[in-house]
């Protein structure tokens, strides 16, 4: 399968989990059916300056972010760290996280949510 740029689903929405501002989500794979029921999100997400994805806990799934560009404050289970291009974050089952774009450019990231099949 090849999904061309203009075939992706683009969804600009209010930041989730009581975050501030808006985000843009580009689905790279369209949900569990395209992920052999092993995951539910594989997306390129833009978190605009001053916007955030609010802190939330993952039940029965994990989430990984690969930061492509920008600077963000990342809440890793209550510990705030700065993340930049090339950094990878991982939130395991039962753990929580949130991210806030800081600076003048959006934070561009790849998000992968995998279901806990154990």
TrEMBL record:
<feature type="domain" description="Cupin type-2">
    <location>
        <begin position="46"/>
        <end position="111"/>
    </location>
</feature>
<protein>
    <submittedName>
        <fullName>Cupin domain-containing protein</fullName>
    </submittedName>
</protein>
<dbReference type="InterPro" id="IPR013096">
    <property type="entry name" value="Cupin_2"/>
</dbReference>
<dbReference type="GO" id="GO:0046872">
    <property type="term" value="F:metal ion binding"/>
</dbReference>
<dbReference type="Pfam" id="PF07883">
    <property type="entry name" value="Cupin_2"/>
</dbReference>
<keyword id="KW-0479">Metal-binding</keyword>
<dbReference type="InterPro" id="IPR051610">
    <property type="entry name" value="GPI/OXD"/>
</dbReference>
<dbReference type="InterPro" id="IPR011051">
    <property type="entry name" value="RmlC_Cupin_sf"/>
</dbReference>
<dbReference type="InterPro" id="IPR014710">
    <property type="entry name" value="RmlC-like_jellyroll"/>
</dbReference>
């Amino acid at each position: 399968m090849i999904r061309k740029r203009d075939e992706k689903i683009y969804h600009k929405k209010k930041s989730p989990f009581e975050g501030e501002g808006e985000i843009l989500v580009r689905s790279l794979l369209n949900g569990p059916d395209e992920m052999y029921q092993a995951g539910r999100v594989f997306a390129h997400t833009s978190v605009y300056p001053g916007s955030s994805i609010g802190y939330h806990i993952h039940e029965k799934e994990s989430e990984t972010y690969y930061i492509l560009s920008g600077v963000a404050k990342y809440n890793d289970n209550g510990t705030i760290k700065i993340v930049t291009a090339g950094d990878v974050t991982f939130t395991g089952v039962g753990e929580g996280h949130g991210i806030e774009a800081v600076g003048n450019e959006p934070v561009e990231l790849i998000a992968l949510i995998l279901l806990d099949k154990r």
